[in-house]
Design brief:
419 residues, 17% strand, EC 2.1.1.228, Alpha/beta knot, tRNA processing, Trp Operon Repressor, Chain A, five-stranded parallel beta sheet, tRNA (guanine(37)-N1)-methyltransferase activity, alpha/beta
């Protein structure tokens, strides 16, 4: 991490860069932060760095030629930089922006003051303006500290335990869980018994449950970016149904198994952490075909050639019907699953995927996603689902004919993708 701060008030940063986590990280060589005094590039005997704003109204604006001289000097010494300016007009700072900045070789943060920077310099030299929120500060120095602190946490070695970074609020998309310390009872309020039990698995489950509950209660909008897989206490499954499904005329039919569906959906299930990929077809010959393909990739020479495909096919389990698959999940999880159906057709009562995601977190049941081959699931299947998702849509027209392989990837990413 290599950051340069350009500021007219370098004294702001003396303690910040020498104390606590940031100070240790600099001394240990994990990060480098240089502070450049803008007044070194000022004009005249008074090293002027600002002037009155055109148009009146009060306030001073930092001079574009002074800013450019400072930036040119920095880049001449340390190479090209990604230039950031804290500003109320900028993008709202988020964990995603922090990670993007931390991936840069050299970041320059130019701290505005008074009325800010001349707009011509911003348009010419600033790559990104960043806002701390819907409020105004006296200058860019405090935002610069916040950006540097957030970036530093992502540098290996800066935080003692990397797991502390991963578990922080927003890193996984969720808020953090509550924390407690000694004494075990304070002011008549005890710490949760589970945290004093010494049972690591139960403590981990409690923390994830509390994080999910807190996020749902306080910041439900964050759920859209969160991978909720690890916050679910029960298993998650996907079923690919070949009967009853619809043909192109909308009639009930049985579709054929294809190796491409099995391979691609198996890989999606493995990527997004599902427990098993359930394939259902009433035709014995088709079930035998699935077994033959799975055996080739898991126990035959195919697995040696392509270990990744071996893992994908290893998630497959075959059933003659969705009912049998659901019974198997129920026995395995010791309770019936929440069944989520998918369709490309508009249907009354369809759930927005975000509402379904929130319901999954609240109910804490095993989950079974059901996808249809052919032209989609028959109403016999959709009618027994607890939730039917609204169709995937995009673009500007009414064309909506994704392959089931693509649909599975999109749906699973919405629920179990990581930001």
């Amino acid at each position: 991490m290599n950051v340069t701060i350009v500021t007219a008030f370098p004294g702001f940063f003396r303690d910040f860069l020498s104390e606590s986590m940031i100070g240790r990280a600099i001394r240990n060589g994990f990060i480098r932060v240089d502070v450049v005094d803008l007044r070194d590039f000022g004009t005249g005997n008074y090293r002027q760095v600002d002037d009155y704003a055109f148009g009146g109204g009060g306030g001073m604006v930092l001079l574009p030629d002074v800013l450019e001289k400072a930036l040119d000097t920095v880049e001449a010494g340390k190479g090209p930089a990604y230039v950031v300016c804290p500003s109320p007009q900028g993008d709202l700072l988020s964990q995603e922006i922090v990670e993007t900045l931390a991936a840069r070789d050299h970041v320059v943060i130019i701290c505005g003051h008074y009325e800010g920077l001349d707009e011509r310099f911003i348009e010419k030299r600033v790559d990104r303006e960043i806002s701390m929120g819907d409020f105004v500060l006296t200058g860019g120095e405090i935002p610069a500290m916040a950006v540097i602190d957030a970036m530093a946490r992502l540098v290996p070695g800066v935080i003692g335990k990397e797991s502390a970074v991963v578990e922080d609020s927003f890193f996984r998309g969720m808020l953090d869980h509550p924390h407690y310390t000694r004494p075990s009872e304070w002011d008549g309020v005890p710490a949760p018994d589970v945290l004093l039990s010494g049972h690591a698995a139960e403590i981990e489950n409690w923390r994830r449950s509390e994080a999910a509950a807190r996020t749902l209660a306080r910041r439900p909008e964050l759920i859209s970016k969160a991978n909720i897989r690890q916050y679910l206490p029960k298993g998650v499954y996907a079923a690919l149904v070949h009967s009853p499904v619809l043909d192109r005329k909308g009639e009930k039919t049985t579709a054929a198994v294809t190796g491409l569906d099995l391979s691609d959906i198996g890989r999606s299930c493995r990527t997004y952490g599902l427990d098993r990929f359930l394939v259902t077809t009433p035709l014995a010959s088709q079930r035998d075909l699935v077994k033959t393909m799975a055996a080739h990739w898991t126990g035959g020479t195919g697995g040696d050639v392509n270990p990744d495909r071996k893992e994908a096919f290893g998630t497959i389990k075959i059933f003659p019907s969705l009912d049998r698959a659901t019974e198997w999940v129920t026995r395995r999880e010791k309770e019936p699953p929440l069944i989520i159906g998918t369709t490309a057709r508009r249907r009354e009562g369809g759930f927005h995927w975000l509402e379904a995601k929130r319901r999954i977190l609240r109910e804490k049941k095993p989950v079974l996603f059901v996808f249809g081959t052919g032209s989609g699931l028959h109403e016999e299947v959709l009618g027994r689902c607890h939730i039917v998702l609204q169709p995937l849509s995009g673009g500007f027209g009414d064309y909506n004919h994704l392959s089931v392989r693509t649909a599975v990837g999109v749906v699973l990413d919405r629920f179990f993708g990581w930001r």
